[in-house]
Amino acid sequence: MHRVIISGIGAEIPEPVITNEELVASFNSWVDTENARRADTGEPLLQKSDSDFIVHASGVKSRHVIERDGILDPTRMSPRIPARPDDALSLEAEFGIASAKKALAHAGVDGSDIDLVICSASHHQRPYPAIAIEMQEALGTKGAGFDMGLGCSSAAAALHVAVNLVRAGAHKRILVSTPEIITGHLNFRDRQTHFIFGDASVAMVVEGLAQGEKRPGRFEVLDTRTWTQMSNNIRTNLGYHTRTGQDDPYMINLEGNLIKQVGNKVFKEVTVAGQKFIVEFLAEHGLTPEGIRRFWLHQANARMNAMILKLSFGHDVDHDRAPMVLERLGNTAGAGAIVALSENHADMKAGDFGLICAFGAGYSIGGALLRML
Amino acid sequence: MHRVIISGIGAEIPEPVITNEELVASFNSWVDTENARRADTGEPLLQKSDSDFIVHASGVKSRHVIERDGILDPTRMSPRIPARPDDALSLEAEFGIASAKKALAHAGVDGSDIDLVICSASHHQRPYPAIAIEMQEALGTKGAGFDMGLGCSSAAAALHVAVNLVRAGAHKRILVSTPEIITGHLNFRDRQTHFIFGDASVAMVVEGLAQGEKRPGRFEVLDTRTWTQMSNNIRTNLGYHTRTGQDDPYMINLEGNLIKQVGNKVFKEVTVAGQKFIVEFLAEHGLTPEGIRRFWLHQANARMNAMILKLSFGHDVDHDRAPMVLERLGNTAGAGAIVALSENHADMKAGDFGLICAFGAGYSIGGALLRML
């Protein structure tokens, strides 16, 4: 049974930024137009938004997106990204590769040293060929690839799979990639969710530690865990079968089929479940939250993370202990906790413990207990 | 490191049948209407189909489908399956559960004995909550669930993951489920692919073998392997990002976004790759094809399987050695090889070797070397 390390970590943040103010201006302009229409039909009028509400509700002040064009246009409210021909690299694979190259460089290995690519994300661009296989070809990796998904726990669940595949000796070195292009599926006309998300891609190289091998500055993965429990409070309904219920089965109306969220229920239920997960997972290793140098939590909501930590520790915890990237990036789904890890581990010392804990749609929670070598 | 067995196997075949003759009558009726329209516009006319062409091209004589209504209606050509409310069990989970219950009964365990559900299929009904989590709730399983996919190798790839998760001690008993509702995404107006597929759901229980434990009649999994290589010759393009390239990003036209296949290239390339995979995989275990009592191959095309076996053995191989369920069921994607396994293993003796080998979109190939206990 092999000891397993994360030998490389990479995060790719797209350059374009959208501030709350820009998003609110676009949203409110659309509401004006929509309400003028509704005034004629007698439908209930929509409420405008403002930046203070967004910051209070989520903590998000800006988000990075793959493509600004189209999102802020009140007549479109979706990124405008031309379709590519089948023989061109897909956007999701391209985004995954950008973070993968950084993770490979960090690990000091080439693509050809990888023997499995797992592409795990909240949404995939298509079912097949798997995005992981496109990445495999572009990176020159060996072996195989497959796609998986578990909402915002996608990277954590893939890490659980990868660590155990290496532990069992099935693969030598695995690339876990989580390219999250959330703006592609976001309903920018929904006041409750349009401001939450941003795009980001992360990757990790997972490999075995040879007998006597020293890898200072890298994390050993002591344990991983996943937990899920059914909830419709974060849900999306688009799939192939959506067509079978429609009058015209060759057309899919996305109205009602994009992400929807019952925010207050998610906040309460996932906060309680997350705290329980953290405390129990650590206790099984003879640890308490105080013994963990750093927490890389899912980046969905600033108040939610503060509450999970307060319940776990019994007191407030600062951002040195649990860094946040949410304010700048928004919720980047499965990528969030790994972006926080990527940006906040260089100061850790040998022997320091760290905990990745991602949570979200499903409900799902995924954790990994790390110790710096 | 644990020895791993498949302790339960279950297959669910929906009752409704569609014969080649029925499918051809519907298709040709649509072609008549379409060609009348095309005659007016000057577009090239479409070719009609016939049952002999279907049998020659694929070996398929009938297929079972979840819902006949709508498929044979030349004005619709898609199953008519009303959308369910979010709080109702989804069709994919329901279909997965039907086979899962058979696999649990075969293994002699309850849902509560399972600590991970993997739902691995060519297509999923939605990204989140994961279908595996719905199954988890309905079956009363513990731990967690996640969804993954790798085209027609979906069950084989999930078996690879499950076997190694158990081997590494991360889970005790895993349910691998592959509910394939292919008729939901099939373009019944495409002469090249409309006749190939049918619906089926399969499940396997994967668990460790305790020291000294005897499980006669069950298969030990000696090894598993996955292989992938990029190809667009089997491809589908529907995903959330499809909308970002469209004029109206709140509507997705499925024209061009359903499964398409370059049949002759797939036949040639996957036949060669499949034969190579089989011979090399067996050789690494000191085995030749002659030493394998039974092959459960992917059920896509009767001539393709015959060719793979002929290249592997150096001579023709009969259906006792490599049973086919394709004639009756069509290509049931990831489920096919496991349906063949489910229906064709009771006569095997202790010590007999068997090989699961699935192949398809990606390209992807997944194999599992079994020996009956």
UniProtKB/TrEMBL annotation, chains A, B:
Highest taxon of source: Bacteria
All copies of domain Beta-ketoacyl-[acyl-carrier-protein] synthase III N-terminal, residue ranges: 146-209
Keywords, ordered alphabetically: Acyltransferase, Transferase
E.C. designation(s): 2.3.1.180
Statement: the UniProt record of this protein carries the keyword Nuclease: no
MF terms in GO: 3-oxoacyl-[acyl-carrier-protein] synthase activity; beta-ketoacyl-acyl-carrier-protein synthase III activity
Start and end residues of each Beta-ketoacyl-[acyl-carrier-protein] synthase III C-terminal domain: 282-372
Keyword Transferase: yes
GO biological process, one term: fatty acid biosynthetic process
PANTHER family listed in its UniProt record: 3-OXOACYL-[ACYL-CARRIER-PROTEIN] SYNTHASE 3, BETA-KETOACYL-[ACYL-CARRIER-PROTEIN] SYNTHASE III
Protein name, UniProt field: Beta-ketoacyl-acyl-carrier-protein synthase III
Organism per entry: Mesorhizobium plurifarium
